[in-house]
Design brief:
Layout lengths: L1 H15 L13 H6 L5 H7 L4 H8 L6 E5 L5 H10 L4 E6 L1 H14 L8 E5 L15 E8 L2 E7 L3
Length: 158
């Protein structure tokens, strides 16, 4: 089943991740990131039931981190992560081929904004979501919505 494969993938990624070399110890102002005036109205609407500042604080996204965002879809979460890890961090926004085909135009438009300069779009299967040769992620995030249940999973190797 797909959800079991995804969970296995997340657990594998967390097991192979290593301690980062240049991650800031100081957390950014997550509320300020969410309140930034250049975020879209559509993203602000999604914020209303997702508590993005609390989520960013919970997962501990910090400047300099390298993050794999599995199932990035349109990039709402990836953009928030990119803002939190800037200026030296990187976010890999992964989608499967099928998902990417549905969201390509909206994701590509998002990736043309200055706030997303540190996001790399990755089209890979869920069973193998990381770009070839890419490892040592500081954080792996995954969004899963099932029957109106919203789950944001983040695995932070320590």
């Amino acid at each position: 089943m797909l959800k079991h494969r995804i969970l296995a993938c997340l657990l594998t990624l967390s097991a192979i991740a290593a301690t980062p070399a240049a991650v800031s110890q100081t957390a950014p102002d997550y509320a300020a990131i969410v309140a930034t005036s250049d975020r879209s109205d559509a993203d602000r609407k999604l914020d209303t039931n997702r508590a993005p500042a609390q989520w960013l604080a919970f997962i501990g996204a910090k400047p300099g981190m390298k993050i794999l965002d599995i199932f990035a879809v349109y990039g709402w979460k990836a953009e928030l992560l990119a803002r939190a890890v800037a200026p030296d961090g990187k976010v890999y926004a992964q989608n499967s081929e099928a998902v990417f085909a549905r969201v390509k135009d909206r994701l590509d438009a998002r990736l043309k904004t200055p706030a997303t300069a540190n996001i790399v779009s990755v089209v890979r299967p869920f069973e193998d979501p990381a770009p070839p040769g890419m490892h040592d992620f500081d954080l792996v995030t995954f969004f899963y919505a099932y029957h109106a249940l919203l789950t944001l999973v983040s695995i932070a190797p320590r």
